[in-house]
């Protein structure tokens, strides 16, 4: 930062400068369901890096899995990978003062996977909200006043029209759904099946409609989730296990063996099943290869996303995505200091907003 003589600063500038030198603090996950509020030194930014002053985070279900012990994670660490904030300091391309969201992956841009457009699978990938609080990337998560973004994290500006809570969901849930839609191909006029109505499933219903799907059938065991899908515009909502056929695109988000089987089994001629829910080891699912061959059917998988999917997520949220039932999707806001309580007793809704 350039040093200015105090006499040249107005009061407002001085106040702004005061904020820009504030010491970051974060909720550090220390194992089990324990969090501890700790302060951190402001990071020295390397070329391409930036420091974002967070205005909100949203709690992704995978953090709940980490805290409940169902997903391994670096510990101690600052969790949280959905967030929105203002660029406070930067040695990158996005100017100070810009309101932004950011990708969940930090990638090298040079390995074979990065070069062929699969940067989500970068061979040296590091992830937002997944790094040790004792590593050189201590401020990696969004349950904090600030997040430190390495050069390999995609940063996308956010229009003023998007509320913080809505914008924050772009960085994991919405961008992943954009990647699924791309893997599914053209949805125009198609019959789409969405299995599993959590945050991603609900976004998938809205995204399929926005891309011109003729029908969107949504399945979930919970009546309140089916109700949300209805309000997001689903043509029909069903209980899992309901027999379906002639589906052009099936989007699987439950991760359940039965859900995977029903997505694959529902496909019509030329149909594609995109699996994204199966992120923990589970039972294998058998397929009938003749059904794949004679029916020109496709099964594919998606995990995380590419930078252009994050940009598409912001565009979707600012356009058709605005019509989703956000008042029921979002819970909170809760203060950062209440995070332990939030993980013990989740707020109602699919995503809880956390504000520093
Ligand atoms: Zn997530
Ligand atoms: Zn790479």
Features:
Rossmann fold, single chain, 2 domains, binds zinc ion, 16 strands, eight-stranded mixed beta sheet, Quinone Oxidoreductase, Chain A, domain 1, globular, disordered N terminus, alpha/beta, six-stranded parallel beta sheet, 27% helix, 356 residues
Summarize, please.
With 356 residues, the chain is of the alpha/beta class. The protein is 27% helix and 26% strand.
List the helices and strands and how they pair.
Elements: H1 11-20, E1 25-31, E2 34-39, E3 50-58, H2 61-67, E4 82-90, E5 99-106, H3 112-115, E6 126-127, E7 146-149, E8 153-157, H4 164-168, H5 173-184, E9 191-195, H6 199-210, E10 215-219, H7 223-231, E11 236-238, E12 247-252, H8 257-265, E13 267-275, H9 289-294, E14 298-301, H10 307-318, H11 326-329, E15 330-335, H12 339-344, E16 351-355
Parallel strand pairs: 9-10, 9-12, 10-11, 12-13, 13-14, 15-16
Antiparallel strand pairs: 1-2, 3-4, 3-7, 3-16, 4-5, 5-6, 5-8
Helix pairs in contact: 5-6, 5-10
The protein binds zinc ion (ZN) (2 copies).
Radius of gyration: 21 Å
- CATH architectural designation of the largest domain: Alpha-Beta Complex
**Please, what is the average pLDDT?**
94
Bound compounds, each kind once, are: zinc ion
Describe the fold and architecture.
With 356 residues, the chain is of the alpha/beta class. The chain folds into 2 domains: 6-171 and 325-355, Quinone Oxidoreductase, Chain A, domain 1, CATH 3.90.180; 177-301, NAD(P)-binding Rossmann-like Domain (Rossmann fold, 3-Layer(aba) Sandwich). Helix content is 27%, strand content 26%. The chain is built from 12 helices and 16 strands. The protein has helices at residues 11-20, 61-67, 112-115, 164-168, 173-184, 199-210, 223-231, 257-265, 289-294, 307-318, 326-329, 339-344; strands at residues 25-31, 34-39, 50-58, 82-90, 99-106, 126-127, 146-149, 153-157, 191-195, 215-219, 236-238, 247-252, 267-275, 298-301, 330-335, 351-355. The strands form 3 sheets. Strands 3, 4, 5, 6, 7, 8, 15 and 16 form an 8-stranded mixed beta sheet that branches. Helix 5 (173-184) packs across helix 6 and helix 5 crosses helix 10. The longest helix is centred in the middle third of the chain and has 12 residues, at 173-184. The chain is globular. It binds zinc ion (2 copies). One zinc ion binds next to loops.
